[in-house]
Amino acid sequence: MDGLAITGALFVLVVVTLSMGVKTVPQGYKHIVQRLGKYHRTLNPGLNFIIPYVDQVAYRLTTKDIVLDIPSQEVITEDNAVIIANAVAYINIVSPEKAVYGVENYTIAIQNLVQTALRSIVGEMSLDSALSSREQIKAKLKAGISDDISDWGITLKTVEIQDINPSPTMQSAMEEQAAAERQRRAAVTKAEGEKQAAILEAEGRLEASRRDAQAEVVLAKASGAAIELVSEAVKGDELPVLYLLGEKYADSLRQLSASDNAKTVVLPADLPQAVRAILNKG
Model pTM? Predict the structure, then answer.
């Protein structure tokens, strides 16, 4: 009975030992094997054999592209503006043994490296340039950290700037500045419009005055010409003059009598004498 138990135990031990020596690595992964605590070899995808109890799989790493989210951080530009920026990096592990033995935690290391490089790059740019130069920042980031992470057996595929925006305080100040600039432009436009309107109005008054003066000159010339014609026609005879003045005088009295305010109209008894009196008075 004891022999059967021992045999069974040995069989189980053999099966377990053999299973420990057979390792299957999935596609897209690589396993790091340590022998007695020291790096021994890297297992590729497929069926692999190791020495049980001596070798062990210490690390399992993916060979697929890894997406690393770079946390948001405040960055100060060259002109002392505060912006908030974050990014995302795409990496690929080409040498798993370097990635696990070259740095304590490659994920945290790359995140800190990108954040430090981003602060340095944006710190040399003005606010307007930083907000409008994502491709330039991206290129500088990739060039700046590719060599560093290559020592860890990692390739940087690309790095993208997700968000780069002014801080809430800076954004509020920019909005106030923009509002003030719009108000200033509106005031300038209004003042310019009022100025042009005043100029046009003054030019209109000047033109009207010129035309009135020209009209008065024309009327004066016409009156002078009429007086000359009348004088030429009369030639010292007062009868035509009395007739004309009498006609005007009678017409004025007729208009006066037709007025709503006129109550009583007194006509002179000797109209010619009245006209002569006006003429002599003139």
Answer: 0.58
